[in-house]
Hints:
The structure holds two protein chains of two kinds. By secondary structure, chain A is an alpha/beta fold. Helix content of chain A is 31%, strand content 21%. Chain B is globular and about 85 Å long. The model of chain B has no long low-confidence stretch (mean pLDDT 87).
Amino acid sequence: MTAAPALKIAGLSVSYGNGSGQRTVLRDIDLTIETGQFYGLVGESGSGKSTLALAAMRYLGADGRITGGSIELGGVNLLAMSDPELRRTWREAVKLVPQDPLASLNPRLRIGQQIAEGFDRRDARSEERVLELLASVGLADGLRVARSFPHQLSGGMQQRVMIAAALAGSPELLILDEPTTNLDVTTEATILDLVRDLVRARDTAVLYVSHSLGVIARLCDRVAVLYAGELVEDAPVSDIYQRPLHPYTRGLLDSVPRLGQNRRDDLLRPIVGQIPQANSLPDGCVFAPRCPVATELTREQRPPLEEVGGSRRVRCHRWREIADGRLNPRQQGTAAAPAEQQPASARDEHVLTVTGLEKRYPLRRSLGDLLAGRSRRQVHAVAGVDLAIGRLRTLGLVGESGSGKSTVARCVIGLTPPSAGEVTLLDVPLARQLSARDRPVLRRLQMVFQNADEALNPYLTVGRSLRRPLARLAGVSPAEIDARLAQLLQAVRLSPDYAERYPHELSGGEKQRIAIARAFAASPDLLLFDESVSGLDVSVQAAVLNLLGQLQQERATAYLFISHDLAVVSYLADDIAVVYLGQLMETAPASVVLQPPFHPYTEALLSALPLLDPQAKQDRIRLDGELPSPVDRPGGCPFHTRCPRFLGDICVSEEPPWRETSEGKRIYCHIPLDELEATQSPATLPAAPWEGPEAND
Amino acid sequence: MTSYLLRRSGFLLLTLLLTSLTIFVITQLLPGDVARIVLGREASEAALAGLRRQLGLDRPLPIQYLSWLGNFLVGEWGTSFSTGQAIRPLVLERLGNSLMLAGLTLAIAVPSAVVLGVVAALNENRPLDNLISIASLSVVGLPEFVTGLVLIQLLAFELHILPANSSIRPDAGFIEALPMLVLPAITATLVLLAYIARLTRASVLEELQKPYVRTAALKGIPRRQVTYRHVLGNALLPTITVVAISFGWLISGLIVVENVFNYPGLGSLLTFAIDRRDLPLLQAITLVAVLGFALANLAADLLYAYLNPRIRLQ
């Protein structure tokens, strides 16, 4: 007889609300996780994945209800438990590592107190055990961490604390709900390594919830794909990336930019339409309205979840045709943008040049500083950045949080006056203060922010938001303005009736399109994007990225595209600049950015990147320690405190030289280029085996 | 924390200085000649001039302000125009009375309002929550003189439990005054109750939504521990600020309640001073009230910072 599975969910349905407001967010979920298994659960926002994670613990909040099905933990029926039994299960058998560790920790209690709460109260060794747990998640200075309050720790340390707390009861099932979503990619990589090592050593079952197929490919044995509250596909990780059977899974894989994919030669294929609301689901297959291979049958009849070859399950009427290659379920794509036609002189024209840009923020002197006569300390947010962008070209600026990349954008647009350096737009130096810039300059320079929700005025219709820049900046006459408005909406692929809508009537992707339309309203020469696609689901993000590429061609604009995501940047950009602690580390044309030599920091970034390929072998380069504070910015090379290729005193005391390769790559490092090149391997490009031979037609 | 304390205290001094200037300027702008108010309509020009000289009213305004402020700081608050009494003992006595009433009111109002707010929040949208909301809002809608008179009618005249008149003796201690304090304190409580209870309810509901409450619950600790240790510790922080503002109102703004019960507090002295155009008295009361208000707010800020590590450990 085999042991009971760690988690067995059968026929589970979950609803929120009552009466007419009732929304069924999960339907007929079957999911079994064996002991020691690493199970991925992937889906976009609105898929119900977080609800499923919490339902597996029977924790649904005030208005959530389980309306059908069963949940067994280690063979014990969770739904039949009394409250004390359920609390005991939470204490011992099943643990959650949530998204957003800072919000998930009580701001008023010390870390040690919060971890010890998970122990039996009579435990005399609780203090020792807290330190043991902190040590087991790689927090060496456990005593200090235990005495700290949550806000005193970095995001990565906070998430380690959450993992330590989850390990307190030696759980049989560990549920991780997007645990690395707000972390930097280098921190994410160390956390993923940690989770994998800890779990392998303990034989715990894991349910890993994520929107990122790359993270799941790196970590999991199996993956279940959730769409609009239904399980649409469930398979071993190796199979699902090799040959996805459900058109939605395929659409997800085609939506994520693979490292090395560039829009100039290989466009993403976003999924058309958007995820249906929980109270207006289609009658047949939930994916039918967005499915490229939907038929009458699909639209009318809900497909069953069918077994495929013993180890896989898929909910699609046409999986057999897809499995034997008769049917290609990929989304209709648009043709790749034709190479731009422009005279060589225009190519050399620089729309934007930034030279020696610096931004320092003086810190308030404390009383102690005053008494000791210490001078004012400064935060060095940007410490000497040079950039240039040509017409019709995109410069991608990559950096982690605290790198100063957003400050660069704010200095260019004028929201933050730089402390030193010069910003030139079309050979005209720009005033530092926004208020000192005249209207033509404002028109030429526009920006799209990360959060379209906050960037659009909720009390203005889309039409009013767009008319203002058209009239004030582009100088469109009242007679023409409606025609221009319709053109603008058309340009971002929205119908003219959107002009009458308010922001709350739009989806996240539509809001970002409106924000983009508003930026284009002024017919700018340069557009700045600050993490403008980061908050979007991958299928929506793909559509927006393609739109940006097309708009650039149509309107001959230059882009400064800022993101923490190297794969997204290398997809969109022609040139890439990597920034660390306010200092450029490397600049490279996109064509050679994945070829050695790399700056050691770029090398670490590439190695940390989760790839869409479970078979990918990446060098395992991890950065130690925390990002230094920009107040006590390390001298010499600012990266020396964490550099895996640290040479010695020279890195500490001397600023590195800029070294340039024959292909135009520039690296800010003391190590000679040939030495770097000899010891570095090219970045691993994930294969896209699911595309098959017909991908090139 | 030390520098936080010093900074806040500096702000407090600046606030007081600005208020004293405002008070001085406003009282100068009030209509009416002080000397004529004191001496009456029939007084001769010579007598008026003599009094002005005696009171220093013929000097330039900045000098008058500085000497008034200086005198106030060293404790010479002058004499009342209308009664001729020394102002300081009078104001301090009334301040003592007001503090007694404010203390008792807060001792009743804060715990009951917090309990009501927490209970309402933990039973959100259930009958108990609705009952608490409706009851406290309907009470706050009634003016103090109505609730005060109803309470007097009920508890003093019908049931004979408490005295209707609260005019305590000038040197009465707290114990002696207590029976007379209860009715005005309850009346003032009814004003504050709904305000503090609704704020507490909103604050608890906001905290209950935060992810750390889920983390605590999923540790498998008893629900009561989640509520007391995690939710309330954070949810009651905003209440501190509200209590401080209420305290300021209680020591100087309790004009209606003091009049209904004939209670000799700072509020009724203030109406007296206004009625008689008694400028030195008015200035002294206002400055004392502002001082009390500012100190209460300082105490609240410091307590808030102390209880909130994100500020304390800046």
